[in-house]
Amino acid sequence: MARFRSTMQGQRGLASRLGSKASGMRVNVNGWDSGLRIVARVDRQGRDTFDVYASGGSNDANVLTHLLTLQGSGVILTGATEYARRGDRVLVNARR
Predict the structure, then answer these.
(1) Can you give the residue range of the structural domain that contains 60?
(2) Measured in whole angstroms, how far is the alpha carbon of residue 68 from the centre of its chain?
């Protein structure tokens, strides 16, 4: 049974994919020089958990900076402080 579901709309229309508790799900959205990776997983307490990373896009997709982790209705910020130090805008509306 699917635990996670993703959808995307692009040039070829709508597509969807399913992920289980065992498989989780990894989604990449890339431009040439920047992008995002979202990893959906189930943590040790059985909570749906989403890790969000900034990537180097199609040119360097494996260079990842952890931005935040979402568990339930709470956001745990980690890597976003590095972006704030560089002067990039980081907008967060989160309950702690």
Answers:
(1) 4-9+23-86
(2) 8
Beta carbons within 10 angstroms of residue 89's beta carbon: 6
Q: What is the DSSP letter of 95?
A: B
**60-71 and 74-77 as β-strands: parallel, antiparallel, unpaired?**
antiparallel
Q: What pLDDT, in 10s, does the model give residues 4-54?
A: 999 999 999 999 999 999 999 999 999 999 999 999 999 888 989 999 999
- Domain membership flag for residue 53: yes
Distance CA 11, CA 85 (A): 36
In a domain, 59, yes or no: yes
